[in-house]
Amino acid sequence: MDKILVIGGTGQIGKLLLSGLSTLPYSVAVMVRDRRKCTFSDSIDVIEADLEGDMRFATEGCKTVIFTAGSGANAGLDKTFLVDLWGAKKAVDAAKENGVEHFIMVSSRGADNPDFGPAAIKPYLVAKHFSDEYLIRSGLTYTILRPGRLTDEAGSGLIKTIRPEDPNEQVISREDTASVIKYCLIHPFVHGKIYELYAGQEKIPEAIAAASD
Length: 213
Ligand SMILES: NC(=O)c1ccc[n+]([C@@H]2O[C@H](COP(=O)([O-])OP(=O)(O)OC[C@H]3O[C@@H](n4cnc5c(N)ncnc54)[C@H](OP(=O)(O)O)[C@@H]3O)[C@@H](O)[C@H]2O)c1
Fold this sequence. Notes:
Elements: E1 3-7, H1 12-21, E2 27-32, E3 45-48, E4 64-67, H2 77-97, E5 102-106, H3 122-137, E6 142-147, E7 149-151, E8 158-160, E9 171-173, H4 174-185, E10 193-199, E11 202-203, H5 204-210
Parallel strand pairs: 1-2, 1-4, 2-3, 4-5, 5-6, 6-10, 7-9
Antiparallel strand pairs: 8-10, 8-11
Helix pairs in contact: 1-4, 2-3
This protein binds NADP nicotinamide-adenine-dinucleotide phosphate (NAP).
């Protein structure tokens, strides 16, 4: 079975994603910083590694890497640089070194142009911008997802990929974001594509297909 590595699998999107992956025919590995703090089902291979350290071995034997790690809203600028930027760069390098075929990056709305994103998170958006650019130029097959502000609401399965003008509407649930990641795993037409993600009115397959032309 093809192997998927989830980097950030102990996070909020990561956990939702992992619970949904059990229905797919993949072998699943999760990269964690401290295995003693995690409980995963026995079918999941737990790999202990830190984006701030040497994590190259974590991608060995993987067909797909999903990067949904992040320094978190309360982190300082040091972690924004070391995890969101440099950690993402290291994950891309590790994927390339080990022949990964598809890299799915959870980025952020505003990473396309941090000058026009929310001012309060501009350094984070700059980090996301350059990690996305690094992935795009890496030669890896990529899919970049740029969700709006994440919420803990239940997923509706309904999204849109066009950014709403009202910043208050630039939101999406973590559950719907996890569903889009899962969708991207099994639909090769998402390769080489970048999608913004917001709560909307279209079913995920229709919305992603419409944004893929
Ligand atoms: N919050 C938002 O509104 C928003 C909007 C758009 C995009 N995003 C992006 O969405 C993604 C997921 O968000 P989320 O809410 O699920 O995040 P989260 O709950 O904060 O989870 C972050 C994950 O990153 C891991 N991590 C942090 N530092 C690490 C390191 N040095 N090495 C390895 N793993 C590390 C954490 O592992 P530990 O369990 O070890 O801490 C955790 O699994 C992130 O990329 C974030 O930047 C967020």
